[in-house]
Every structure is written in C-alpha cells, then in structure tokens.
C-alpha cells in the first residue's frame, strides 16, 4: 500500500515502539495521528513529525471514539492502524503477600487486549467505507503482542494472557475483514529498548541482552517500525503474528 497522503493512527505513540512507528510512517508520507494517555509525549512526537497529537484512553469507548473522530476530521478516515499502547507489570498469581489482586490482572487485560480491540473495531469500521486501492485493499491493521504470548515467564500471568489473546484475535479479525479488503497482522517483539527496559540497572540490561542469540542486544523501535512498513507494503501478509526477537525463547524465569 502506498502510504503517501494516507491517514494513520498509532496508539501508544508518545514513546517507545509507537513513537518509532509514528516517525517511520510520517517519513513515508503518511498523515499520522499520535494517540496516547501521555499528552505531552504524544505532542512532542507529533511536533517532530508534523502530525496530530490526541489524548486517548484506549480502554474507554468514549475516549477512543472521540479521538478517532477528531483524527478523521483532521486527516480523513485512517487506512493504517498500529496498536502499540500497552503495559507490562510483573506480578505472580500468588505472591508473598497472597493472591494477585484481581484488579491488577483486569487492568492489564483492559489496556493490552480490550484497548487493542477497541481501536480495531473503530478503525475497521472507517476503513470499510474507503475506496479500495489497486489491489483491493482498504486498510491495514497491525497490533502488538509479545513473545510472552508463547513463552510467558513466572510473574507474567496477566501480561502473557493479554498478549496471547491479541495473537488469537489476529486471525479472527483477518478472516472477518477479508471481504472488505482490510488486512490484520500482529508483531510479537522480544526484548526491545523501550523505556521500561532501558530504565533497569545496566547490569540487568546486559544480562537480558545476552539471552538473545543474535543479535545479542535489545531490538530498537526503528526495527519494529521497519516491520510495520513491511507488513503495509506486502499484500500477502495477513492473519499472521510475526515474531521479532533475535531467536530468543524465554525460559520460565
């Protein structure tokens, strides 16, 4: 799909993978709306790329609907959606102080899974009304899972459950939207240099990076964004979750 002049939505675009994706899409000529609960972060990225920044709580129907509507007014209906909003807290199902509070599990599911579904439903509804391109495509949706969807570690019950569900949602959405020419893929990153990992002590970062077979380092937001662009470019990529992890397979701990 030719991105020149096309509208794109990026959730979690105020930092990390989302910011890298917003920059890459804008560099290819897309009109990017940066959605994030962190308004200052979203605005900084939007100012850098000449895009639009909007506050958006992906867990809220009202907030997401309002943000998508404002983006549509500014740029037209989006042909590209990239879901990068997410959190990754670590907590055991039963810890030293007892069982995980149910609200803690629910919060991760709300942001990582329901937030992803919330934007998919809204963006796909708009895409369905667009004119198809020369290959019959009306839009492309890319979500973010994690290698934890397949090899969740101890302490990742909520995170792994949410990302496993995003993976499962991918083929269902791709099949449903096939008749309208909307493709759906998911990227499952391994260890990436996002603020969460880069905030850890250097010795912890080094230990984690050494677990990646090759290249033995954290991935970068730019590398994630390059895969997003490849998905957009290749019309046969559909219904797939693609691991982007340097061949890492996570252990139990």
Report on the architecture of this protein.
The protein is built from nine helices and nine strands. The chain has 253 residues and is α/β, with parallel strands linked by helices. It has a single domain, classed as NAD(P)-binding Rossmann-like Domain (Rossmann fold), CATH 3.40.50. It has a seven-stranded parallel sheet with strand order 3-2-1-4-7-8-9, with helices on both faces. A two-stranded antiparallel sheet has the order 5-6. Helix 1 packs across helix 9 and helix 3 packs parallel to helix 4. The termini are far apart. 43% of the residues are buried. The model has no long low-confidence stretch (mean pLDDT 95).
Keywords for this entry:
two-stranded antiparallel sheet, 9 helices, 7-stranded parallel beta sheet, alpha/beta, 9 strands, 253 residues, Rossmann fold, 16% strand
């Amino acid at each position: 799909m030719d991105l020149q002049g096309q509208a794109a939505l990026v959730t979690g675009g105020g930092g990390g993978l989302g910011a890298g994706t917003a920059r890459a899409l804008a560099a290819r000529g897309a009109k990017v709306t940066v959605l994030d609960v962190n308004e200052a972060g979203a605005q900084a990225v939007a100012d850098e790329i000449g895009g639009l920044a909007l506050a958006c709580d992906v867990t809220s129907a009202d907030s997401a609907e309002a943000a998508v509507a404002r983006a549509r007014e500014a740029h037209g209906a989006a042909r590209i959606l990239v879901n990068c909003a997410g959190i990754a807290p670590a907590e055991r199902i039963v810890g030293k102080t007892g069982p995980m509070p149910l609200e803690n599990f629910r919060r991760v599911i709300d942001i990582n899974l329901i937030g992803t579904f919330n934007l998919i439903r809204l963006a796909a509804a708009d895409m369905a009304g667009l004119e198809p391109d020369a290959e019959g495509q009306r839009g492309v949706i890319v979500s973010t899972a994690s290698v934890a969807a397949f090899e969740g570690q101890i302490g990742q019950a909520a995170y792994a459950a949410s990302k496993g569900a995003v993976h499962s949602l991918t083929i269902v959405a791709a099949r449903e939207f096939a008749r309208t020419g909307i493709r759906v893929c998911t990227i499952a990153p391994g260890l990436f240099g996002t603020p969460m990992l880069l905030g850890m002590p250097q010795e912890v970062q080094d230990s984690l990076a050494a677990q990646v077979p090759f290249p033995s380092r954290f991935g970068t937001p730019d590398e994630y964004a390059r895969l997003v662009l490849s998905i957009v470019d290749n019309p046969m990529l559909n219904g797939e979750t693609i691991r982007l992890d340097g061949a890492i397979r996570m252990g139990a701990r």
